[in-house]
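Fold these two proteins, one after the other.
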Amino acid sequence: MPTSHFLTLLFCLLITSTVLAAEPLIITEQLLHLRPSGDREWTTFPEKPQADELNIRFEAEANPGETALLLRQQDVKQTWNVELNGKVLGKLVRHEQDQQLLLPVPPKSLKTGINQLRIFQSGKRDPDDIQVGEIVLLTEPASKFLAETQLSIEVTDKETKQGIPCRITIVNAEGALVVTAAESNARQAVRTGVIYTRDGKTQFPLPAGEYTVYAGRGFEYGVDQHRLILKKGDQKKLDLKIGREVDTSGYVSCDTHIHTLTHSGHGDCSMEERMLTLAGEQIEFPIATDHNQQIDYEPLAQKLNVRSYFTPVIGNEVTTKWGHFNVFPVQSQGPVPDFKLSSWNEIFESIYETPHVKAVILNHARDLHSKYRPLDPVNHLSLTGENLDDWRLQANAMELINSGATQTDVLQLYRDWFGMLNRGRLLTPVGCSDSHDVSRYIVGQSRTYIQAEDREPGKIDIGQAVQSFVNGKVLLSYGLLTQMKVNSRYGPGELVPSAKAWNVSLTVSGPSWVKAEQIQLYANGQLIRSEQIKSAKRGGVKWQETWKLNLPSHDCFLVAIATGPGVTAPYWQFAKPYQPDSPEFESQVVGSTGAVWIDVDGDGNRTTAYDYAERLVKQHQADLEALFKQLEDYDQAVILQAASLLRKRGIEPFDPKLTKALRNASKTVQLGFALYGEAWRASQIARSTN
């Protein structure tokens, strides 16, 4: 039986085809699950596909003039050709979201009698589970089909009553992004079912049908929506209103990882479209980071009249064989870091020789590029933040959530970061999008909030904001915002002076269309408190509470992380992992703080776990039992660093001398050394098989 969507589509096609010589031809009513090779990508798909390609023979009349083919596609990651009678009509859109595709059928492509439609994966046949079907052969050109109705939309800000840059999303009754006749220009950036408009206004033709239209403006704003039915010849005007729901006063929204097709050479977003998407998603402090290029957004932002919505910064994704590093600020006409160098020491030397550079970010550290993964167990021991090849990471920031390249385990890079902080690598946590696209990967979907004056987005003090970023005065947002104050005053990037008591005030915020479920608090990377959240459905504050803490008797850092179900709605749908570790995946919204450092010992310094461990190991290396006795007064982070330092001094995790001394140690010390031993063994196995 046809789906409800297909019945609606068929009804609309039939009622608009009464003046034609023939009715639209239904080639298939069903969505088919295809996979050409390999294991399934996700457990949401059956283990066995229905076929490796779509191959349908159908009877039709020859077409003396142009017609069109309309279909529906889902979860397309690789390249798939659509072929009619041996000739390629086009390709499926590489986009995982549910959407329509409309392809012109040139004159004489059809023949009277039996025709053959084939949809198959072309090029490299990497595993790709897709759904495709509900295919209709129209009897008119695509341009005529798209011109059946006219829709005018105006989106205004609830507070100012004025038009506002925004993202408009249009779906059919089943939630699939729909084709329209809208086109990108100086005022709007368009993809299937998505229009970014610089002033909230757009007007375009689209086929008759049933639609839901959404308007939003990224994380801080609510979403307005309207359902409508358009019949052939209709001309309708739609007014939508959106308002700010999340208070981010004192912080500017920043995306540190942004690309364009124009300069990076892949993706689909032109420079002009990028300016409109930045305004539409309310990115106030965008960093231009095309690969090994230093691009200035300023002239084009001025030309397109969106410069008042953001303050652009010139950056560069230094793309090497040994990792990718975003750097800023730089000069558009200045020297470019040498991306062909062969070691971290050389690469970082070249980066820091580039004039004005202050921020250096380690990008997507668990992704494989050029056969190298920076934080692969072959190269890196996550538990203690140590590079096994003795390469020194000289970045001062690290991506924890890259919404264009998410991890299967959303907290994996947090654990890596905790290990780095305990090792003494003071890295600012980063949320970013790595977007190369208008809509497939949404710019600013994950973002970093930097503590800075934010009253005029077009006049942000770049020097102040960059320094605040380097100092770690940030919040990371991927659908939620988590804020923390210690003893009513101190936040991320700051050192809390010694005190008799530790009171931690936490606030979790988000728009009305996001839910928070849990808040966790970590000290030196160890979970010390967790609470379930009964999230308010309204926009704004979802949860708020102050906790009184018992902290270790030594310095530590605090990080709070809130999570909840990922966004599946078509107007801001989260992407699946770019390089998944498992076919099982459940997306999550995340809001986390930067690190707040607690000066428990009162010496006025941020003393890391590594610092404490180094001091103790130097004092007691010759007497392991005495060392273990001293370690009882420290947390697991210090114990792990002590195990690492002993290994560096020739006492490996399974050394008989070490094992014997551990028999008399406390359970806490034994556990720390056991965890280090397991991680060390796993890493050695990985290195031996690499």
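Now the second one:
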Amino acid sequence: MPVKTHIEDGIGIIVFSNPPLNPISARAGIPQAIEAALHALDADPQVKAIVLAAEGRMFSAGADIAEFDKDPAAIAAPARRLGHVLDGLKKPVVSAIQGGALGGGLELALATDYRIATADAKVGLPEVTLGLIPGAGGTQRLPRLTGAAQAVQLISGGTAIDAAQARRLGLLDALAGDDVQAEAIAYARSVAGEGRRRSRDREISNEGGPSAMAEARAKAPRGAPGDAVRGALNAIETGITQGFDGGLEVEYDLFDRLLVSEPARGLRHAFLAERAVARVPGLDPALKVDPVRAVAIIGSGTMGTGIALAVAQAGLPVTVIDANAAALERSRSSVESAIARSVERGRLSEAAGAAQRALIGFSLDLASVRGADVVIEAVFEDIVVKQQVFEALDRLADEHAVLASNTSTLDVDRIAAFTKRPQCVVGMHFFSPANIMRLLEVVRGEKTAPLTLARAMTFAKQIRKVGVVSGVCDGFIGNRMFEEYLRQAYFLLEEGALPQQVDAAMEAFGMAMGPLRTMDLAGQDIGWSIRKRRAVEQPDRPYSRIPDLICEMGRFGQKTGAGYYLYGKGGKPDVDPAIDALVAEESKRLGITRRPIGDEEIVERCVYALVNEGARILEDKIAARPLDIDTVWVNGYGFPRFRGGPMFHADRVGLPRVLSRIEDFAGAYQGWAWQPADLLLRAAGSGIGFARLNGDGA
């Protein structure tokens, strides 16, 4: 039964259960069952007050997001009706909150008269992060408890706050110990004679409200992602000027419209895909994996230092090892500076900063890898250097340690062959800066043991990364696709576009940064090195000479003050006429008559190149599902989250349309690069769509 009830000394107790996170799921019958229990207890003369509680570690994580696309019209109705039922009761209701009350879970608690929570509980309304607004009364009830200014910050930010802060803001009435249900019963008994304290009956304090709303509007992104924030503010303002019912009507209407919008669909897909990637096809979920207790990193460069910070931020001890004393000292200095900046900016307390420093050790001796559960090689991207490291690790690392290479393109199977224990070797491709970027490509080699893979994915979760499993190929999932993305960007330059136009078009599409600005940020010399290697390995797949010409000028991007753009103080890119002239001259050398190229063509060529290569990656079983590709690109390459990822976006555009445009491009300049993937041909012809390949995932 989803809901159980009993009466204890005049207090009616309702306990609902929908493990593990207790979503207020209409499909599971949760709101309907709570409603029936409330009516029964409210009508019982021996009941003086009611406690609403939940089983397990969490009160409720909110609505079941997986239901949103199945029957949008039926999603909110039961939860809204439950709020109205709570408003109409004769007897007071106390919510007993443990763990957390988020989204629809908090909206349910807000509709009760009193709220008591454990000290470790988190509460919040994160709907805007999914392109929505609270849709079951949250925009009206919250400001009546906290005041408009605080409600605006909480709803527009979409972040959760701890119980102590929620108590200070008036969102909670009391804090409880471990047995919140028992304390809620006692609390209900103490207020049983005081009557109702409905949140809807309170006046909204608008002190500071107008300025908070102006600030939230200014911070809201332009276009689709900001629509949710603007909608929530509109609902709050309506509640102030037209009262609870007027505001509720606006809230319901806005939620219903946003629920079926394309940005909200994309955001939901990205959210669900991030959770689905942890369920690796073919990997037994019952496999017992011990948590990682200690980490060693070989290499103290930018990447090794960033990984060390990420590990320490997660509370794990880590040792950075390098035979170069000067390099090790630079790493130590970088760690100190990064932690000091976080303390200075208020992101860390002094005590937390000191704790992080204490977790990071430095050593000149490779034997310091002993005792580490995970050893991460982060040396120069050269197979000979990596061979030396892994042969040494084979002698020195603990027998069952995970041996991971942070390579971004090299063959993990070849690296594993440098050891006598290839079953313990895995790729861990971190993204720079490693202490900030959320993505971690976990590369499964031909001989990687299931336990090694499971330990690597567990470690990713421990250090708060989104781990995505990839097979072995040049570039894995992300960089293999990025190569085709860049190839089209460069060909567009040859045909008639300029760097600033390509970047502006892709940024208007929603990319965090255009492709040419991205390479300036990463360092043009990195791509140059990879292109030199691939020119030997793949001579039948030519590149544009433009990026190489820029590198030959010593323009390696931001770090040299010049790449495709000029960079002054602050790193702001300025258009350089010299690069425009270089691009035009290269077109002339190739015998190309430059032509006007529209932004739509730029976006289609860059994005559909991703889609086509993504389909090949699925054919080659480098990625198990389209959602794995989407998660890599949303979290590692700045693909707009509200578009869900390249494969999801292709489904929304329609695969027949995508294929038609690819066939158009195949008949034009450098058409060899547009051979449609067999999977794309089949999917477009059958009307299946990539989503069908996700199985039970997003």
